[in-house]
Amino acid sequence: MTDKTYPKTERTKLHLLPKRGSYDKAVVHAIIDEALIAHVGFCAADGRPVVLPTAIARIGETLIVHGSVISRMMKTLAGGVPLCLTVTHVDGLVLAKSAFHHSMNYRSVTVFGEARVIEDPAAKEAALRALTDHIAPGRWEHLRPVTAKEVKATTALEIDLVEAVAKVRSGPPVDDAEDLDWPVFAGVVPLRLARDEPVPA
């Protein structure tokens, strides 16, 4: 590990197609910063696994998530249970000459760790601002200021980026040589997430 990479741990070591992996902090940060949604996996109080989507933002080497104080996820994560957080972008459908070699071009990040409740009022407001401005850059300063009641009704959690790994696939399909003359299209159908024109309320 260096100041520019995350350590390769038993949990972040890639066993399938490790050449697609990256522990580079700049790569991990870029994938996270483009994401609007992450999925958080954890074991609920009854021992059953749960995976839930949530908005995220990054402040330095910390991820921020938030929710209602009565949320099951917030209550459980606030207890410091182990979690696994993932982010995925699908950049293209990779269409090969055979079904076996079909794939997707993607960029993903997996983070392992535990969450902590942000108790300090100033830090909590900074976290809520980061989440708001991540969704709509620069919007926080134009909004009606949050009230103490709203802040109290919200749980903000932070997750340190300590165990994190990116995995990326890009490029065309990899067909078997004997399939190259098969008369069907092979290539990539690019996909992207785009913002459309805003619709007034």
From TrEMBL:
Record Pfam families: Pyridox_ox_2
Q: Where are the transmembrane segments?
A: none
What name does this protein carry?
A: Pyridoxamine 5'-phosphate oxidase family protein
Species for this entry = Zavarzinia aquatilis
